[in-house]
Structure formats: C-alpha cells, structure tokens
Known about the structure:
alpha+beta; Ribosomal Protein S5, domain 2; two-stranded antiparallel sheet; 6 strands; elongated
Amino acid sequence: MLESMTGTAASNFQVSGIQFQIWARxxxxxFVEVSLRCPRVFENADRLEQELEERARRSFHRGRLxxxxxxxxDTGGLRRLRYNRELxxxxxxxxxxxxxxxxxxxxxxxRAAKTKSGKTKTRAGSPAESPVAxxxxxxFGVSAALQVLRLPGVVELEQALPKDFDRAAFFRRFDRxxxxxxxxxxxxxxxxxxxxxxxxxxxxxTDRRIRKRxxxxxxxxxxxxxxxxxxxxxxxxxxxxxxSAVDWLDKGDVSEELERVLxxxxxxxxxxxxxxxxxxxxxxxxxxxxxxEVNTIGAKSRDFEIRRLVVEMKTRIENIKEQxxxxx
Length: 328
C-alpha cells in the first residue's frame, strides 16, 4: 500500500501538570529530514530533544517532518534559578583588581584606608561595606551578597521541567501523535493509489487503441506495397518496393514497444499493492521507462492518429510522475 509524504496531525495532553500541544506535518523530500521546535523548558532536559528526533526518524523513512511542541502550565513548575558561580568570582576578582589599582595610584588614601581598617571594625552586612572587602575580611554578609547577585548574569531565571517529569508518558503521547501523522499519510496514499490506477487504465486503453490503429495502418501499408510491386513489374523500373517494405518493417513496427508499455503498467500495479520501502522511487523509475517506450512509438510511427494517441499517453505518464512525487 502506498504512503504519501504529506500529512498533518495534532494532539493536546497533560503530563506532570504541564499542558502540551504538538503540531506535526510532513511534506515531500528525497530523504528523511526532521525539523523539531521544542519549548524552552526542554533546553536543560538531558537528551530529551535528541530522543524525540530519533523517535521521529525511526517512524518515517522519507519526507520532511516539521514538529512543533508548545508547553504551558504552572509557572513555578517550569522555572528555576541558575547561579553562575564562575561569573560571580570573576566580578569579585575585577573589583579587587580595581581597588588595588586605585590604592597604588593614591598612596595617602591607601595608608588612610589601611589605618582606618585597622582601628575600626566594620559591621558585617553594612550597606557601605564593599563585596570585595567583605570577602577579604571573611564576613561576606547578606547585603554584600545581594550586591553581587544584582550584577548581570550572576543569577538568571531559566525554564526547566520539574524533577518528577514523567518522560515515559510524554514519549507515549508523542509516539501517538506520530502514529496519527502516519495514518494521515497512508490515507492520502490510498487516494493517490486510486488516481494512479485510473491513469494506468487510461494508458492501457490508449495502448489498445494504438494497437488497433497500427493494425489498420499495417494493412494499408501492405496494400500500398503490393500496388508498388505490381507497378514495378509493369514499369520494370523505379524504386525497389521490397526495400521499402523491409525498411518499414524494420523502422515502423511498434508492436514490441506497445507490449512493453503493458508490462511496465503491470509492474507499477504490483508496486502499488506491495509493502516495500522506497516504492515511490521504484514507480518513478518505471514511469521513466514507460515514457521512453511511448516516445519511441511516436518517433517510429508515421500515422497522425497514432501520434495523437501518443500525446494522450504522455500526458497521463506526466500525471503519474506528478503524483509519485508525493509517495514514499
């Protein structure tokens, strides 16, 4: 049974308190290509996106898949704080370097600051206390910590899945969406099969009409050859009618081509009913061979009616090739 490369599917479900929507569609492509758009909550999940892409590739063997996943739910369950420890240390290091550079440029202020620091005890957590001095003094309080946390990039609010997120349940619903997409592709494949069968019937009917017309044309040609033979005997000269008959039998007979047209149509029918991979590519090959035989019939024939019927067959073959572009 043929399977189309075009189809759509959608699903709406809830897993671990998060509401998900999945939109999936597929279009024509020579190979398998997966375009996956996931919510930001998946960015920090271990190999979740990779696993989804691998599942999509295992389910289909041809076509471009476009899958979009949307997530909504409890904001608290989808967000978490991320503390960049290395960046905070870099900030403190730069501040310390800045203070040392300032002290080296002003020795009096440096000595005054040193004397003051030796005589006056600074209360931990004082608003006037710098983070660097607090860290060096070993009394890094809440106020100093808040000053560091206000710096860009030290603390960020990132989206993440809850720790108890049920991956197995999500994968089941994801696979079910892919199965619905495959059902849609097979349904369209059945519709394309009916269309192709109609085109094949028309080609076979035209093949029979050409056979009939070719038989009449052959009789007319043989009658003409007999007349030429009779005139040649009477005139004892002129062109050799036997040579003309041999040339016509050699170049104008299309019986073999008409037989091969029927064989190719039968091969395409067998492929449409078979469960085989790359069926579309094989049917495309036979349609090319079919077109080659029909072109040969048109080139050999000198009869206008046969050439007109050849144009009809070529039109139907082009229709087949156009439909095959949608087949896996």
